[in-house]
Fold:
Amino acid sequence: MDIQARYPNSIPRPIRILHVDDEPADLEITRIFLRREAKNSFEIAGALSAEEAMKKLENERFDIVIADYKMPGMDGIEFLEVLRKSRKYALTPFILFTGIGNSGVAEKALEKGADRYISKAGNPASQCSELARTICDLVKGKKKGEELENSTKKIQNNDKTFINPVSLCLQLPPEKYPNTSSTNQ
Structure:
């Protein structure tokens, strides 16, 4: 077993990104700017269609997916819907990164489960800088959520008397909440 798999938090590894765009030039420009911004902390795989991306997802693990909206065949939102229905990638952060600067597209993407919508319009360097920050924020947030969930599961598995305090509070009527006010008697 490799060390990273056995001790996932001990050795930092690059964030694995799947970038889907039907324009090879856009894939390359984004890759160049993201690598410059992230200084080797990103490992980027490109796909020229959602169908090609699905094949890569079957064989590889990615921390985040970035997709263009307007692509032949399956568009970025349809691709997002397929991911959200999958067991393996349902919770993977997803960014719609597109030149279609339309609030309707942004709303639809967010409604369907995209974590962010970023427009490609403007200066590629500044757009990729925003994209890099967003990637880091989303992946770190996902990892923290997974760590919290794993810690809770370990506690529950090791202590059969464990009671989740949040669920306990949700079950109690308000008059039964412990008194947290500090009054001197």
User: Anything to note?
Assistant: The helical segments are 3-6, 24-38, 50-59, 76-85, 103-111, 124-158, 165-171.
